[in-house]
């Protein structure tokens, strides 16, 4: 048994702030947040000295990082590199994301995810399969040649993979996946998210009633809110589903973000995602996806025709943007980066907070929101 304590001027447990307290860690779990006088004798005590200690960030949409793109490197080693490249930005748990591709590439990705889970790759909590069952009308940067309806083999492959990893998220469009298929996925524990869809509100509500509980990158690649047809945006805001948000100042205007936060009906909340690609954490100026060139410039990733293709964003940058530009209270922003995504995929019992029994995955932030140190399940991985 290994035991140590971490102290900082402020500790955020996922719900509330604490001062004059320490986080006691036993092996890979949080044992308690307590007064320094109550720390057991012989415990290694680490005083961080400044800033704040907060739950590790959770990113449910990460296509790549550290030079690795999941669509191109569908191996356990690639997943390990992708996950590790996120640590320096405060993300301690993530869903590597595969965008629309061929049947064979999707199969290989699911196999790699199952193997990564079995090998307990640090930071890996499952996969996000975004496509290929989308709407060509709202394809975004997805290759339309690979977009197709879900068939029985596709569904069974997802069901099999879900049994082998803590979480499995799939983004689908109601144009390509029916309510009965959504229901089967949801009943098996797959988190179903609507995205890349031109559906009206009626189609979205049918999908929510069938078991879909989320929308992917709110406002982007979906039918918009109108006065006579609320679209998927309106459906997401008016219903209690979860909604991912790319907070980079490019994908969604700051005024629109503020409106959405004020309008969002619970219990599902808006949470932060990066939608990052392979350039995260590197000086890469471009890469290829499905054989198409993507250029990194001016804080964005774009195809030759200007279409956004993922985001040039890290989780700590999204946190800072929401706090400084949108003006949201820091505690709520931190929940959007940790507790809310954990709840959205059903893993909030063990991640997304620093309650007793939770994974000891934490981030030491400076007062100006710089990442000073990162722990994943009790092991220091950065700083």
TrEMBL record:
The active site is at 275 (proton donor/acceptor). Substrate binds at residues 141, 220-221, 228, 251, 308-310. GO terms for biological process: N-acetylglucosamine catabolic process. Keywords: Carbohydrate metabolism, Hydrolase, Metal-binding. Zn(2+) binds at residues 130, 196, 217. InterPro entries: Amidohydro-rel (IPR006680), GlcNAc_6-P_deAcase (IPR003764), Metal-dep_hydrolase_composite (IPR011059), Metal_Hydrolase (IPR032466). Its cofactor is a divalent metal cation. Binds 1 divalent metal cation per subunit. The keyword Zinc does not apply. Residues 52-380 form the Amidohydrolase-related domain. GO terms for molecular function: metal ion binding; N-acetylglucosamine-6-phosphate deacetylase activity. Gene3D superfamilies: Metal-dependent hydrolases (3.20.20.140), Urease, subunit C, domain 1 (2.30.40.10). Belongs to the metallo-dependent hydrolases superfamily. NagA family. This is N-acetylglucosamine-6-phosphate deacetylase. It comes from Pelagibacterium halotolerans (strain DSM 22347 / JCM 15775 / CGMCC 1.7692 / B2).
